[in-house]
Amino acid sequence: xxxxxxxxxxxxxxxxxxxxxxxxxxxxxxxxxxxxxxxxxxxxxxxxxxxxxxxxxxxxxxxxxxxxxxxxxxxxxxxxxxxxxxxxxxxxxxxxxxxxxxxxxxxxxxxxxxxxxxxxxxxxxxxxxxxxxxxxxxx
Length: 139
What we know:
By secondary structure, this protein is mainly α. It has a domain at about 40-105. It contains four helices and no strands. Helix 2 (about 30-75) packs parallel to helix 3 (about 90-105).
């Protein structure tokens, strides 16, 4: 280490301080470029975070749609009704699907207008009426 030399004049003091300030400024010479790069990187992080959230939302939507479709197929619900199932979790979706499936199990289709196993009446208008009468009687 260098031997201590006392400072006796203002000029010596100014020279020593100037030298120290020059070395310190050299250390931080790239501060402005680092600051600009930091701003750019912060903007990129904000943009990428927004894109990530949008993609996660999209993936969650696809996953939910897949779960709804799978449950609808398991419970024999028409695929056109799968997107109408509600719920956030698979258990909630399954509960709603079971309720919808019960509706489809109890619902019966319209009575057929023509039954090939019966003798058709002479008049076609009478055939539909006769078929309806038979279905009402439970025959």
